[in-house]
Design a protein that fits this description.
The complex is a heterodimer of chains A (about 325) and B (about 550). Chain A has about 325 residues and is mainly α. Chain A is built from 13 helices and no strands. Chain A is globular and about 85 Å long. Classes of the chains: A mainly alpha (about 325), B alpha+beta (about 550). Chains A and B meet through α2, α4, α6, α7 and α9 of A and α1, β12, α7 and α13 of B.
């Protein structure tokens, strides 16, 4: 086990290196100039060049990259080109908001997806399955920003149950207040996760129901509900672990639209601002962080797999 | 098995609640920098719908008298880049700085109002300006604000290592303005050459406290910017990244205690969502798109305030384009004749109330502006005639547009349709904002012909020279006229106001006749202002920063 963890952690290093090169290359290929953010029409071209030079943006791309890499290896992800604050600090500052939002949405989505997916799989092509499928398709295809606005319109503006935006009432420090603000964005994100999880669990359930152990349970006279929730669930949960591993990347990227619509101060909204301003140190930082989360998520999923199903451990 | 599963679900739920609690407690605490709170009357929790209810009651008792107290929530589109006026260039930072840092003086619609300064006197030769500060000025931390702070600020702006974008404002040719302290309340600016625009320059430069920044090697990256100490009517209270910046009343403000307890600048990135928050009472002041005015007006809760921003919206011709023909004046004039300014404004701004027809390249707030210049009013026959004269037929033009920009998209579609009438085929090319900026303002770009742009250049006409002189740093149109070039130079050093006025009137006529751009409208900014609050007239609506003096705003 320790060897596996060590090997996988070592593998993340070249992967992150590769991700950083691709990301840096793509930023440099994209049109636009970060210096344009600072240019005012009264600035002399010499002053613009001075700013460009001070930011190191007048160097060839590969030198800029090596400079960035050198700093990165010492733990410094650089400074934002826009607000000049340290990149790592900004990511860590925004992380709790995104982690809370995405974490709770994923948890809710899993809790809801398991019974819905199991029932849809067990009653394949029956009305329950069709209804669950229909809702899942709607959930997958509905644009998140539109759903967000719709929720805001109804719950905030029409019935006044919930605040429409932000993470807290201004100047107020209370967990309850944050929860109240989190309900709408969380609901939107949960619907988006739930829809894909349900489809996945449904397919997995259909596959499991054909397995011998299920047929044996039927032969022993067990009823379907007991078979589903006692036996099939355990096997269906295995692929859910994979889904959760993959969802780790959502910690960074998945909430972009929801955070923007609801002005949730997380990493997603930081990414949008950075992308608009060509703030490449932030974009690089967020991308690397996202990639690292994905790799660690996958590693955690694999470890959980081997704990949950010892056969998998043996095959390694 | 069932027990195990229950346990695993419980763990998931506990983890979920924990993550939320962590996010609530940990969220952005790093930026929660509060300065010493000496304001007993501050009540920043009095917001949103609760605020609406309270205020409604107050209004019913006495709506005419300003009351002390209340929190005004202003929507801003992003986080501020930096709350330090020697680096602030973005709209949000400038807006917040307007309340946080008092300026030396302001010029709005030609009217000069002194704030920190008591007077500004030019010498007879116009080479020395003497600035007198008011006495008894203090920073928010109680330290006196003196000539030392002003000199320090200008020294830092001029220091190349400090990276201030305003440095060029104080350098003429290769010579810098000399800034010296005469006494505690007097500063002298010695100019290397006569510059009538110098007052307009000083308007944009706001003092920062020497005692806070003097030991900072790199002010731009200084952590002191996270808890700014200013001299304006409101002092910094807290900043929650991605959420809001709250300023609270500064009781020792030299102009008297402001009415409001606090002002909060709330980040609202999505326009539709922000409009809902506005209607819901979670925001009190917000910029509006013309298309949204009727919805917000319909609530009956807001005053709709359109005001001129000193901005010109224009259709630009890229004379550098590889098709070559846009170098011909007749072709540019023909395109101008093919368009109807009234219709363009209607298409782009929904109503003539939100943009005045523009003919001159100088905006109405600029000294020596005149709209009485050649205007190429819609005349299709004339357009065809000019195209024929220029020997142009079957012309194809490429119009670059920022995708999602309602104004640009509307104008491009209108232009496409109208130019068809004179035999010009317009192809639209949609680009994202970065790509558009990189292309439209690239001096070497030759692969497009038309784009829609806008500028705000301030009150002195000299500032416009960078746009319209042959070697102008921001001459995206690649326009050149040697006679105009000479006049721009003359205008920048002419101290006699009558002669200067004549120079700039001539320049406006020459440029209008050459048609390097098609001026569309002097556009207005539209602000929705919550009717629970008053004092807008006294606070004065100001381009870019909304209110010139937020101290004058009050709860009714």
């Amino acid at each position: 086990m320790r060897q596996l963890i060590a090997r996988r952690l070592l593998q993340t290093i070249p992967m992150l290196f590769f991700v950083s090169i691709v990301c840096f290359g793509m930023i440099k290929l994209a049109p636009g100039d970060p210096v344009l953010n600072f240019v005012t029409p009264n600035m002399h071209p010499d002053d613009i060049e001075r700013v460009r030079h001070n930011l190191g943006l007048d160097q060839p791309a590969y030198i800029q990259y090596f400079h960035w890499l050198k700093e990165c290896l010492t733990g410094n992800l650089g400074y934002s080109l826009i607000n000049h604050k340290p990149v790592l600090g900004q990511i860590l500052e925004r992380l709790p908001a995104t982690a809370g939002l995405v974490g709770i949405s994923i948890a809710l989505a899993v809790v809801l997806a398991i019974p819905f997916g199991l029932l849809a799989g067990a009653y394949r092509n029956r009305w329950v399955d069709k209804l669950v499928n229909l809702l899942a398709y709607i959930g997958i295809s509905i644009p998140l920003f539109w759903l967000g606005i719709l929720f805001m319109y109804f719950f905030a503006l029409k019935v006044h149950w919930l605040p429409s935006m932000g993470m807290r009432t201004i100047g107020k420090e209370s967990v309850l207040d944050v929860i109240k603000h989190g309900i709408l964005p969380c609901s939107v994100l949960t619907i988006s996760f739930l829809s894909s999880y349900v489809r996945y669990i449904r397919s997995s359930t259909i596959g499991q129901l054909k397995e011998d152990y299920v047929q044996i349970q039927y032969a022993f006279g067990s009823n379907q509900t007991a078979i589903l929730f006692r036996h099939v669930t355990k096997h269906v949960l295995l692929p859910v672990i994979t889904l959760l591993g993959l969802s780790m990347a959502e910690l960074v990227a998945g909430a972009i639209i929801t955070e923007t619509v609801f002005t949730w101060p997380g990493i997603g909204s930081l990414t949008v601002t950075a992308a608009k301003g060509m703030d490449y140190p932030i974009i690089m930082g967020v991308t690397l962080f996202s990639a690292l989360m994905l790799m660690l998520g996958n590693l955690a999923a694999d470890l959980l797999y081997s704990v949950a199903d010892p056969r998998i451990k043996q095959t390694r | 098995m069932i027990r195990k599963r229950r346990r695993s679900f419980s763990v998931v739920i506990v983890l979920a609640v924990l993550t939320l609690v962590i996010s609530a407690c940990g969220g952005n605490s790093a930026n929660n920098n509060s300065t010493e709170n000496s304001n007993k009357g501050s009540n920043v929790t009095n917001t949103g719908t609760a605020n609406s209810g309270d205020a409604a009651t107050d209004t019913s008792t006495d709506a005419s008298q300003p009351k002390d107290g209340g929190n005004l929530i202003v929507a801003v589109g992003a986080d501020p880049d930096v709350l330090n006026p020697i680096y602030a260039g973005d709209r949000v930072s400038l807006t917040i700085d307007q309340a946080l840092y008092a300026p030396l003086f302001q010029i709005n619609n030609g009217k000069k109002t002194y704030y920190l300064a008591d007077s500004l006197t030019p010498s007879a030769d116009n080479l020395t300006y003497t600035l007198k500060l008011k006495s008894g000025l203090t920073w928010h931390d109680g330290q006196p604000l003196t000539a030392d702070d002003v000199v320090f600020t200008f020294d830092k702006i001029l220091d190349k290592n400090q990276n201030s974008f305003f440095r060029d404002y104080l350098v003429f040719g290769d010579k810098q303005v000399q800034v010296t302290k005469v006494d505690d309340l007097t500063v002298e600016f010695k100019l290397p050459q006569v510059n009538p625009a110098f007052e307009a320059t000083l308007v944009q430069l706001t003092p920062i406290p020497k005692h806070i920044f003097e030991k900072e090697a790199d002010i731009q990256k200084s952590t002191k910017n996270a808890a700014p100490v200013g001299s304006g009517p409101f002092k910094f209270k807290e900043y929650k990244t991605g959420e809001y910046v709250t300023l609270e009343r500064f009781d020792n403000y030299f102009e008297g205690k402001p009415h409001l307890d606090s002002i909060t600048y709330r980040v609202a990135k999505d326009t539709n969502a922000a409009n809902l928050a506005l209607q819901n009472g979670e925001i009190n002041v917000k910029y509006l798109d013309p298309q949204d005015v009727s919805t917000i007006e319909g609530t009956g809760k807001f005053d709709i305030l359109p005001y001129a921003e000193g901005r010109l919206s224009y259709l630009a011709f890229n004379e550098n384009s590889d098709i070559g023909v846009l170098k011909k004046k007749e072709v540019r004039q023909a395109i101008s004749y093919a368009l109807n300014r009234e219709e363009v404004i209607q298409a782009a701004y929904a109503s003539p109330d939100y943009a005045d027809q523009a003919h001159s390249v100088l905006t109405p707030d600029t000294l020596y502006h005149t709209n009485d210049v050649t205007s190429f009013d819609n005349d299709v026959a004339k357009a065809k005639e000019l195209l024929q004269q220029a020997g142009v037929s079957n012309l194809k033009l490429r119009f670059i547009v920022t995708s999602g920009n309602k104004v640009q998209e509307a104008v491009s579609l209108y232009v496409q349709q109208k130019l068809k009438d004179v035999g010009i085929d317009v192809q639209l090319q949609s680009l994202d904002a970065s790509a558009f900026g990189a292309k439209a303002y690239d001096p070497k770009a030759t692969d497009f012909d038309l784009f829609v742009g806008g500028y705000i250049m301030g009150s002195d006409p000299d500032a416009y020279s960078v746009l319209f002189t042959s070697n102008g740093a921001y001459n995206s149109f690649h326009y050149g006229n040697t006679e105009a070039d000479g006049l721009w130079k003359q205008g920048s050093t002419e101290a006699d106001t009558t002669k200067r006025g004549e120079v700039y009137k001539k320049i406006q006529e020459i440029i209008a006749g050459d048609a390097p751009i098609y001026p569309i409208g002097y556009t207005k900014t539209i602000v929705a202002f919550d009717k629970q609050f008053g004092g807008v007239d006294e606070a004065v609506l100001k381009p870019v920063v909304i209110f010139e003096d937020p101290a004058k705003l009050y709860l009714k």
